[in-house]
Structure formats: C-alpha cells, structure tokens
Design brief:
alpha/beta, Carbamate kinase, two-stranded antiparallel sheet, 8 helices, globular
C-alpha cells in the first residue's frame, strides 16, 4: 500500500484539559492521558512536527472563576498555572512512552519549565521533538485558543488543529439537533457570517489575518489526527 502523503509538515495542536480527565469530574485519568499520548505519537512518527497547547478545563476555568466573583486577572493567572500542570503531566507521559519533548512557559517557571524561547522551540521542532507551550500568552484575558494561534504563527506552523469531541463544525449543536449539517470546508468569511464559534474572536482574527488554516476535528476518534494530516476531512472541518 502506498504511503499517504502529508499535507502539513508542522502544526500547532490545541487540545482541551478535559481530554486528560476521562470520565472523572476533574484531574487526570491515566488511560485518557495514555490515549492522548498514543494519538499524538502516531502523528510524530509520520514525521509531522508538532507544537502542543493544552487547556486547563480539567483543573480550573478562569472565566468561570471571574463569573463567581473572583478578580478576572487572578482567575486567569490560576488558569495559566493549571495549563503548566497539564503540560508537566503530558511531558512525563510522553517521556515514559519514549517521545522526546520539552515544555516552554510564557512566564518564568524555572526549574519546572524553561521560559519560552522561539529560536530554541524552532530548533527542537526541526529535530523532531514535541514542544508543549504552557501558561497561555503570559497575560490575562487571553484564552488558550489565542495562545494556539499566536504560537502557531511564531513557530511557522501551517495550521492550527483544534481537537474537539465532534467531527468538525456544524450548522448547530449536533448533540442537541440531529438535523445539524456538518461542513467539510468553510472560508473565514463564511465562519464569521455563520457565527459558528470556531474559536474566540481574538484567536480567529489572528488566523484569518495571517491566512493560517484552522482545522476542527474529533480527537477522540482513533486515527483522526492522521486522517486530517493526510487530507481526509471526514473527521473534521477546515477553515481557510
């Protein structure tokens, strides 16, 4: 069988913190973490260079904290720390699986993680190392979606791949509306006019202004990341 051709050589993969907790209410599930590692490792072994941003929803949501009366800046700082915990958890799991990786933090966190260094990150990516970006942008009011878009541009990624629980973007919530239609492709303008909530506005604008593809796909489906990387959009939607 002929080897499938990769459409993307370097990507920024954005996964949710929830992907690490499995069926638990919060925290970490070893089986769920192992599944995340296995799916990313499969893509790395194909020669794809991957920068990774992980959310904090399995530990803390800054926006939810601020809605409950907490100062928004403090709440977001806590969220940044939660992403660092998730990054360290994944680093340990990848190392245990024999996958070389490093963690770059947007804020100084030595000795837990090195401060983000773009040149070093580019060198590590080119060498086949997985690079995990922690602590968001280092500033409050910016989501991990915005972090993903920013880091993708900084590492010269060809696409931002947003891992979700559904196979792409729909006209409505497919869980609540069985008649919702899935898009295989969308232009940035169509996504804006349709108000499909692909990403928060800051992240989406960064991608649109810099012509950076956004691919929303079902990460929970085994092999989905590889399918997307080789041009099979049956498990996702590309915005370009």
């Amino acid at each position: 069988m002929a080897e499938k051709k990769l459409l993307y050589k370097r990507i920024l993969l954005k996964i949710s913190g929830e992907s690490l907790k499995g069926n638990q209410e919060h925290g970490y599930c070893s089986e769920a973490v192992s599944q995340v590692v296995a799916r990313i490792r499969e893509a790395l072994e194909m020669g794809v260079e991957i920068g990774l941003v992980v959310g904090a929803g399995n530990i803390w949501r800054g926006l939810a904290g601020s809605k409950n009366g907490m100062d928004r800046v403090t709440a977001d700082h806590m969220g940044m720390l939660a992403t660092a915990m998730n990054a360290l958890c994944l680093k340990d799991a990848f190392h245990a699986a024999g996958v070389p990786c490093s963690v770059h933090s947007a804020v100084g966190m030595e000795p837990f993680a090195k401060k983000f260094d773009r040149e070093q990150a580019l060198t590590e990516l080119a060498a086949g190392k997985l690079v995990i970006f922690a602590c968001g942008t280092g500033s409050p009011y910016f989501t991990t979606d915005t972090t993903a878009a920013l880091r993708a541009l900084e590492i010269q990624a060809q696409a931002v791949m947003k891992a979700t629980k559904v196979n792409g973007i729909y006209t409505a919530d497919p869980v609540r509306n069985p008649d919702a239609k899935r898009f295989e492709t969308l232009t940035f303008q169509e996504a804006i006019e349709g108000r499909y909530g692909v990403m928060d506005s800051a992240a989406f604008t960064l991608c649109a202004d810099n012509h950076l593809h956004i691919i929303v796909f079902n990460f929970s489906e085994p092999g989905a990341l590889v399918k997307i990387l080789t041009g099979d959009y049956s498990v996702g939607t590309i915005v370009s």
